[in-house]
Amino acid sequence: ASDAIFESSMINISTSAVLNVSGTVTGAGDVIVDVLEDQPEGEWKIMTASSFDASFVSTNPDWGVYSRNNNTELWLSRKLDSLFIIE
Q1: pTM metric for this prediction
Q2: What is the spatial distance between Cα 43 and Cα 46, in angstroms, rounded to a whole number?
C-alpha cells in the first residue's frame, strides 16, 4: 500500500517485535520506531516476508531501514546521523 505506516516496537535492548508476512510486501511508507530509553546502537529484525517490493524510510533520523537475507527480512539499524532507505 502506498503511504503505509509501520510501527516497530523495541521489546528490550536486544529484541524487537517482528511482523511475519507470508507473501510479498509491496508499496511504500514510513517506519515509526518506538524505542526504549537509552537504546544502544545495533541492528534489529522487524519484518520477514517472501520478498519486499517496497520502499520504507524511518521517521527517526537516528534509525535506518534496510533489507537483508536475499530481500526477505526488513531490519532497523541505529547508528547516529545515519538514514538508510530500502528500495
Answers
A1: 0.75
A2: 10
